């Protein structure tokens, strides 16, 4: 299945958000996620199904003003 | 001591963490500035580089409180979603709310700002809104649940100081009990001192320190300016006059003509 991860098309066999993050190499990272523009908290990731073409944003701390 | 959302702040100088020449310089600047709060942001993380993980570890080692921002958000939805993501990652309900309305000046979209502030306050956030000096907007932000306001001095990163002195003085006078933090546009320590002399409670500086030739020395200069300005405010500055008044007593002046 192809999904957009931070704007880049990626292949994953995972069907839920928690599994997809591991599959994409984010295991153990402190990141926040949004699918199709909606925030998905850590606790809901295993219960959040992903579908072909979904837009996943994976954000992490960064310098800011 | 200045108290914001029930937290007493040990310093009236807040620092941004962007645009420093190196992490080591940033760490030293934070240390010498005495700042107790630094601003941070969220950006896309690459699973290969994991730059965000390293930065977060670095920031936690600074031993200061973080104030996440919603920089770069141009809509209410973007800002609200970013705030929700920031709360989870940074583990704080504090959010410096930015809803940008215009790209050349990075002027806040005050209509979107008020709406986003209301949504976030209802969700339990403690909102620090980046706003203008507009009194009506300030009133609406307070009604939306904000307990602190962060008016701009000048456009972000411009270093132009306090552009609208009359407006900023009016804001201070209208809301004497609301913590007011000058958020943007300060370029040199004298601007920060001026903000404090006008009665603002704190200042947030980023570019003016980060882009100085010597950021660490500039951080120290800002710390001193903020302290001097605050002391001057408490001391009660004299009223300016149009005509000269001799400071040396006139009585007893010798007649030597």
Question: Which terms would index this structure?
Answer:
heterodimer, A: 65 residues, mainly beta, 11% helix, 37% strand, globular, B: 257 residues, alpha/beta, three-stranded parallel β-sheet, 9 helices, 17% strand
Give me the secondary-structure topology.
The complex is a heterodimer of chains A (65) and B (257).
Chain A lengths: L1 E4 L2 E4 L5 H7 L8 E4 L2 E3 L14 E9 L2
Parallel strand pairs in A: 1-5
Antiparallel strand pairs in A: 1-2, 3-4, 3-5
Chain B lengths: L2 E2 L2 E2 L4 E4 L6 H11 L3 E8 L6 H12 L2 E4 L7 H15 L3 E4 L2 E3 L4 E2 L1 H13 L3 E6 L3 H9 L6 E2 L13 H10 L6 E2 L6 H9 L4 E4 L1 H4 L4 H21 L22
Parallel strand pairs in B: 3-4, 3-12, 4-5, 6-9, 9-10, 11-12
Antiparallel strand pairs in B: 1-2, 7-8
Helix pairs in contact in B: 1-9, 3-4, 4-5, 7-9
Task: Give a verbal description of the structure.
The complex is a heterodimer of chains A (65) and B (257). Chain A has one helix and five strands, in the order E-E-H-E-E-E. Chain A is globular. In chain A, 11% of the residues lie in helices and 37% in strands. A five-stranded mixed β-sheet of chain A has the order 2-1-5-3-4, with no helix packed on it. Chain B has 257 residues and is of the alpha/beta class. Helices cover 40% and strands 17% of the residues of chain B. The termini of chain B are far apart. The chains are: A mainly beta (65), B alpha/beta (257). Chains A and B meet through strand 3 and strand 5 of A and strand 4, helix 2 and helix 3 of B. Strand 5 of chain A pairs antiparallel with strand 4 of chain B, so a sheet runs across the interface.
Overall average residue pLDDT of chain A: 96
Number of helices of chain A: 1
Structural class of chain A: mainly beta
Shape call of chain A:
globular
Find the structural class of chain B using helix and strand composition.
Answer: alpha/beta
- Report low-confidence residues of chain B grouped into runs of 5 or more: none
Task: List SSEs of chain A in N-to-C order.
Answer: EEHEEE
Number of helices of chain B: 9
Kindly report the greatest chain-chain contact and the residue count on each side.
Answer: A-B, 25 and 40 residues
Described by strand count, sense and barrel closure, the largest sheet of chain B is: 5 strands, parallel
Integer average pLDDT of chain B? 97
- How many β-strand stretches of chain B? 12
Report the end-to-end length of chain B measured between terminal Cα atoms.
57 Å
- Main beta sheet of chain A: 5 strands, mixed
% residues in beta strands of chain B: 15-25%
Shape of chain B: globular
């Amino acid at each position: 299945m192809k999904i957009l991860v931070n704007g880049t098309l990626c292949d994953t066999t995972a069907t839920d958000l928690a599994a997809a993050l591991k599959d994409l190499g984010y295991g153990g990272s402190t990141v926040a996620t949004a699918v199709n523009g909606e925030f998905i908290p850590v606790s809901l990731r295993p219960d959040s199904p992903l579908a072909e073409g979904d837009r996943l944003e994976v954000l992490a701390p960064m310098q800011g003003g | 001591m200045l108290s914001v959302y029930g937290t007493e702040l040990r310093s009236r100088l807040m620092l941004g963490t962007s645009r420093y020449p190196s992490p080591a310089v940033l760490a030293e600047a934070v240390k010498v500035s005495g700042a107790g709060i630094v601003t941070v942001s969220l950006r896309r993380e690459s699973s290969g580089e994991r730059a965000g993980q390293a930065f977060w570890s670095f920031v936690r080692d600074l031993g200061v409180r973080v104030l996440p921002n919603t920089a770069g958000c141009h809509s209410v939805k973007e800002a609200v979603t970013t705030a929700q993501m920031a709360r989870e990652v940074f583990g704080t309900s504090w959010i410096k709310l930015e809803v940008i309305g215009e790209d050349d000046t990075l002027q806040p979209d005050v209509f979107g700002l008020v709406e986003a502030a209301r949504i976030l306050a209802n969700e339990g956030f403690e909102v620090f809104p980046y706003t203008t000096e507009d009194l009506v907007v300030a009133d609406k932000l307070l009604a939306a649940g904000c307990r602190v306001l962060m008016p701009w001095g000048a456009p972000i990163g411009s270093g132009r100081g306090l552009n609208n002195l009359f407006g900023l003085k009016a804001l201070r006078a209208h809301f004497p009990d609301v913590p007011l933090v000058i958020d943007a546009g300060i370029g040199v320590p004298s601007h920060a001192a001026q903000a404090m002399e006008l009665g603002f409670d704190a200042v947030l500086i980023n570019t003016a320190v980060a882009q100085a030739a010597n950021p660490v020395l500039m951080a120290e200069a800002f710390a001193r300016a903020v302290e001097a300005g605050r002391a001057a405010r408490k001391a009660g500055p004299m009223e300016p006059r149009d005509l000269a008044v001799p400071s040396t007593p006139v009585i007893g002046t010798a007649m030597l003509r």
